[in-house]
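Task: sequence in, structure out. Protein: OsmC family protein.
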Amino acid sequence: MKNHHYKITTQWTGNKGTGTTGYRDYERSHTISAEHKAVIQGSSDPSFRGDRTKHNPEELFLSSLSSCHMLWYLHFCSEAGIIVTEYTDEATGIMEETTNGSGHFTEAVLHPAVTVTEESMIEKAKELHHKANEYCFIANSVNFPVKHIATVTVK
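Result:
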């Protein structure tokens, strides 16, 4: 078994001068950075006093599921001789907030729209979404099923 290690830095940038003296006295703004990569501007969801113009953890979580699936999918298509020319996923997720204010995701649905070069590739292209789900590191790390509603068309 091989281990892979990751390191990011999350830095709170929302101190308006008085720190966390009160719930409404600070911003939820923060940055997420990794060496040699662009900085991501983050905040909490607007429902939790966040800045709607910045990415929130829930969106980043869902995007991790979506992009991990896509990368495995493209890998398996390449191996199988399926030529993908376009891939877009409009992923959706549901987070349930509990009565004590905590919460958890109960569902994620990926909606990949894939374009291939030949009609003969469509069935195998659809099947490979199942294999990508089995291999996706992020999907294998969550405690709920990640569903797929895929469409495959020919350009």
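The first strand starts at residue 9 and ends at 12.
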